Amino acid sequence: MPTLTLNDAIGLALAEEMRHDHKVIAFGEGIATKRHELVTEFGALRVRNTPLAEGIIAGTAAGAAAGGLRPVADLLFAPFLCYAMDELVNSAGKLRYMSGGQFSFPLVALAMTGAGWGVGAQHNHNVEAWFVHSPGLKVVMPSNPADARALLKAAIRDDNPVVFLLDIGLLYQPGEVPTDAVPIPLGQAATVRAGTDVSLISYGKTVHHCAQAAESLAAEGIAAEVIDLRSLKPLDESAILATARKTGRVVVVHEANRLCGVGAEIAALIAEQAFASLKAPIVRLGGPDAPVPSSFPLEQATVPQADAIAAAARQLCASRRALTYHPTENSKCALPH
Q: Could you tell me the pTM of the whole model?
């Protein structure tokens, strides 16, 4: 299998889908400059740069989608999706329902998120939970190049608006990408590593931190199962419940703020539907409720790392059914004591 970066896998998927369907167009902040090979192949009418105006870009995408096209809009940094909330949330996400199905909005909003470049708080803010909470939108966040390609293909073909988030820290990490071009259905999690003692559930870059933690736990005789959600909405509830029932111990990990994050929904789902299978309380590891610093070492300190994940899993496996877990409000990354 060829090796590509996640960024290159996104470009490959765009090219494949533009060949597959002439209605697919791509525009956004610097996309024609970054992906000049697309301009060369498909022309300036289908691939074009835009001003730095997220609301206008998202509004144009919503209108183009309603008119029968399949736009992919590159909005660069996820925090600036604030400027596109009305267009994405209040229009694209709701108007298919409000029109009684007369209109559809098959658009993809690409944006970069997370730690890795030291770009500061206004450019680094994990906002995926905002869009998971917005009716009518789908949300995807891949952890590797192969999934990025396959999920983007599925997102472009979907008749609903999809917020497709690219983890900055993974953009230039290489990975094997299959030669076939089969889309992965949205809402289908992946088992990265099988295990029977504890489940580590995550998405984005922290999937790799969970895999590292599982590797170190294996040396201690603890078999950790690692689940990559891939899609945050639709959420693969069956996979989440299956792993929780299998191991009875769950650590949910994400880089975004722990407060009201995606991990809270996963914990609630397990508590409501798989409580009888639990051998210990569910643990959530996430970022602090604070703006992200520009300093690279401090930025990394806001992301749950492999040693913290392993420590949480180790504590769950050492406990009996009545584990006491009391994260403090000011604890870094809300890690266990």
A: 0.92
